[in-house]
Design goal:
Blueprint: H1 11-14, H2 35-38, E1 50-56, E2 76-82, H3 94-101, H4 110-130, E3 137-140, E4 148-149, E5 154-158, E6 176-179, E7 186-192, E8 197-202, E9 215-218, H5 229-233, E10 239-240, E11 243-244, H6 262-276, H7 287-300
Antiparallel strand pairs: 1-2, 3-9, 4-5, 5-8, 6-7, 6-9, 7-8, 10-11
Length: 332
């Protein structure tokens, strides 16, 4: 369904890009990195609507001393994973495709550009899902803050009761959202993290007005997202994937209000090791927490000197650098 908000990639907005010699920075303007998703095991055997396999959820047998003990069978549960579709789309008109096919410019062909930007959006969406709770929610409008009507279907809203309940990574300009259970589309036009103000534009023909305490959803994603990490970590009772979540099968998590320290990292690593028998070999943090880790290294005056200087800096002495922080855990 085409609306006043959904724009196709056409000659009207591509003409200035044809036969343009782009500089080196152009290659670095696509954000498609997701280290955490790269560690997720992909099961290529998942075909159809669901994947089902048995797992043991208890010990089996009898143990004792002095005489033959009684024995008991193990408990097995069938894990049932249902499929959910996740989409990323773009629009491009035929005239633009034909015009760009013979273009010698650095624009590479319009269709290639569209694919790059669609992959970028798809990567962002997978990151959002991974760190979400499966309900498609991006946040909730502040209950005590009135929605500002900017006229013409344009509104300014405040997301989250406080800074701690606002997740900046969930909001990107040019993305479409729904409010509450209403399915009318609103385009995110601007995001101001310091005040948590989001400006949205309603599509033509719509009539819904956002209201306080409305939940904001990515378009069509209400209760349609796959399970995220939050579903797994918060599964303290009941069942998940039809498997009872008991003492031994509950994920370990540590909620803290302070910054990351080596003591905290040691605790998380050893508790996960104790729970599942394998310690993680990658810790993914927010930018703020990563800064705290780097500051911790600075405070402790612990550095790793680069063995060789980067290209172009061979004559510079005392080069310090990192591509990540190596942490010696219980498993190395």
């Amino acid at each position: 369904m085409a609306t006043n908000l959904q724009k196709e990639f056409s000659l009207a907005n591509a003409d200035d890009l044809f036969k343009t010699k782009f500089l080196k920075y152009y290659e670095n303007t696509y954000n498609t990195a997701n280290p955490t998703m790269n560690r997720v095991r992909k099961d290529n055997g998942f075909v159809g609507k669901k994947l089902e396999f048995p797992v043991p959820t208890s010990y089996k047998g009898g143990i004792g001393s002095g005489s033959l003990p009684e024995t008991k069978n193990a408990t097995y549960s069938d894990v049932v994973i249902l499929s959910k579709k996740v989409y990323a789309t773009d629009r491009v008109d035929r005239e633009t495709i034909m015009a760009s096919m013979s273009s010698e410019g650095a624009f590479v062909k319009a269709i290639a550009e569209c694919i790059k930007k669609t992959v970028e959006a798809d990567t962002w969406n997978h990151s959002r899902i991974l760190f979400g709770n499966g309900d498609g929610s991006l946040g909730t409008l502040k209950a005590s803050a009135a929605v500002t009507d900017n006229t013409g279907g344009n509104y300014s809203v405040i997301v989250g009761e406080a800074a701690s309940t606002f997740k900046e990574a969930n909001f990107e300009e040019n993305m479409f959202v729904n409010f509450a259970s209403n399915t009318e589309l609103f385009e995110i036009q601007s995001v101001t993290p310091s005040t948590r103000v989001i400006v949205v534009q309603r599509q033509a023909g719509g009539s819904y007005v956002p209201a306080v305490s409305n939940v904001v959803y990515l378009q069509g994603s209400k209760d349609n997202d796959p399970h995220g990490l939050r579903n797994i970590l918060d599964a303290t009772a009941g069942t998940l994937y039809t498997v009872p979540v008991g003492r031994k099968w509950q994920a370990f998590q540590e909620d803290v209000s302070t910054g990351i320290t080596t003591d905290l990292m040691n605790k998380v690593m050893t508790r996960i090791d104790r729970r599942v028998g394998v310690a993680p070999n990658l810790i993914t943090t927010s930018f703020a927490q990563y800064e705290k880790i780097l500051n911790l290294m600075e405070d402790d005056k612990r550095y790793s000197l680069a063995t060789s200087a980067p290209k172009g800096y061979e004559n510079v002495k005392g080069v310090l650098g990192f591509s990540g922080v190596q942490f010696m855990s219980s498993r190395g």
